[in-house]
Amino acid sequence: MKSSLELKDLSFGYTKRKILEDINFTISKGQIVTILGPNGCGKSTLIRLMLGFLKPDKGNVILDGKDLIYTTNKELACEIAYVPQIHKSAFPYSVIDVVLMGRIPHKSFFFKYSKGDLEIANDSLKRLSISHLADRPYTEISGGERQLTIIARALSQGARTFIMDEPAGGLDYGNQLRLLEEILKLSEAGYTFIKSTHSPEHALWIADRVIMIKNGSLFADGKSDEVVTSNNLKSLYRIEVKVEKVNGSIRVCVPQKLYQK
Amino acid sequence: MKIRPKIFFPVLSGTMLLIILISLTLGKYPVPLQDIINFFSYKLFNAGNINPEKLKLLSNLLMEIRLPRIIAAILIGASLSVSGASFQAMFVNPLVSPSLLGVLAGSSFGAALGMVFSESWYIVQISSFSFGFLAVIISVGIAKIHKGNSILLLILGGVISGAFFTSLLSIVKYIADPYDQLPAITQWLLGSLSFVDSSTLKIMLIPQLAGIILISLFSGYINALSMGDEEARALGVPVEKIRILLIFLSTVISALTVVAAGMIGWVGLIIPHIARMIVGPNNKVLIPACALIGASYLVVVDDISRLLFSIEIPIGITTSLIGIPFFAIILKNARRAWN
Known about the structure:
Number of domains of chain B: 1
Order of helices and strands of chain A: EEEHEEHEHHHEHEHEEHHEEH
Helix content of chain A: 25-40%
Strand order of the largest sheet of chain A: 6-7-8-3-9-10
CATH superfamily of chain B: ABC transporter involved in vitamin B12 uptake, BtuC
Strand content of chain A: 25-35%
Distance between the termini of chain A: 54 Å
CATH architecture of chain B: Orthogonal Bundle
Oligomer: heterodimer
Radius of gyration of chain A: 19 Å
Low-confidence stretches of chain A: none
Largest sheet of chain B: none
CATH topology of chain B: ABC transporter involved in vitamin B12 uptake, BtuC
Distance between the termini of chain B: 24 Å
Shape of chain A: globular
Number of helices of chain B: 14
CATH class of chain B: Mainly Alpha
CATH topology of the domain at 4-90 and 161-228 in chain A: Rossmann fold
CATH architecture of the domain at 4-90 and 161-228 in chain A: 3-Layer(aba) Sandwich
Structural class of chain B: mainly alpha
Largest interface: A-B, 41 and 31 residues
Radius of gyration of chain B: 21 Å
Number of strands of chain B: 0
CATH superfamily of the domain at 4-90 and 161-228 in chain A: P-loop containing nucleotide triphosphate hydrolases
Largest sheet of chain A: 6 strands, mixed
Mean pLDDT of chain A: 91
């Protein structure tokens, strides 16, 4: 059986307001999946459901044939890693200490990190070319470096699926592109990425597949070239955008109203 | 990789040992350091000779009076600092102290209530401990009945429960006999290690040591909790279970400090900051360091309390008077350490 993350008839909402309704899709391993949708459409809720932070009111999230509600945090952490939007930690842990936290799911109750854990953490840093940051305080490095640190932590975790909530949010232009490059590199090595973003171009550039959420329902789901279209973007964001090919291959979004002036 | 922690512990333990030895010499009846070393080498290893009269005097002075008080200071200083550090990490906020969930307010109320309604010291202590626990149960209960961000709700629950028990304490003070009970309550609220007798020490020793050690052993999880609930959860930490366990352990050790010596403020807030400046923020090192630094600090502060003036100053006053200006001075450094 090919391993996968399956969402089945998923609904979530508080008593008065439905946030998500009847979401169905299956993500097989090795894909880069981008979730697009306007503010408040339920993207973050969807991500929290896939991570098991929230329990669905109806339907199931099934990881490799097993419903998430029967999975412990520890088991889940060995399969799925969470990369949140960049944040500052309240305490200035060194970068290596943050990356070592990725080893927690492999440890018993009262644990001590072993030499092996330290090696894994150092390898993860090396893989992202940030070994030089190991002893720097996590709070004093740049946003892009912090995001790479969290990805290194996800690598040390040994998880094969990374779920990212707006990983490029708050990053400067260069760091956004560098982040996409790293994601592409890791996906070629077999990692699965599920990420939400506010930038349709990010979906065009690195996603194999795009899932669009509108008003809590699945609006579109398919190959990025087929789904990220002028019509869909207009209906999702209520804005005129043309999707055009540059240099015959890469696609970009051109805002129409600005373009006319 | 740096192996920093390896040098901290010998240095911090050595400092603590030195402070203990010096504190044993200090008092109304000064004892030279040499006598103390002779006494302990005789007691522990049966080495050397001391004349029997002096032995009796030293035995009485050191074993009955000074050492129990120093041990109490060590346990209380370590407990408050360790529970402060674990709360700061757990609530992702470097400005919280062990009193966050109302344990100190509850314990104070319990002690005051005991003093008004009972003659027995034992009852006062049981009442103090129980109400300390009750205050925390109320905070956690308030957080549990509402849905939402559990850290924020716990803090709000603590504010409510703390305020509630502070008002109850006012009622008890109001109805207390102003010539007899009220001064006792007031003195209790100012804190003093002279309250500690050897039977109290026996009660607090094991639970406090066990609590401190267990919290230290959880420090890997505490690190993860300080990244926020969702991230800790995604790192495989059973967040709710660990947090309740840590709250339970912190409550036991900090309620016992009130049971033993009344209200001693500021220690649980400033020691974690000082420790963080010395050993860094990693709780695996920070929490044991807090225990050693907090213990040394309270022994020194108690020396000041009992020696500075001809009468003893309540230790709660000394810790505040030292702690507040100190906190103001280190604020800049402390801010760098958490920001």
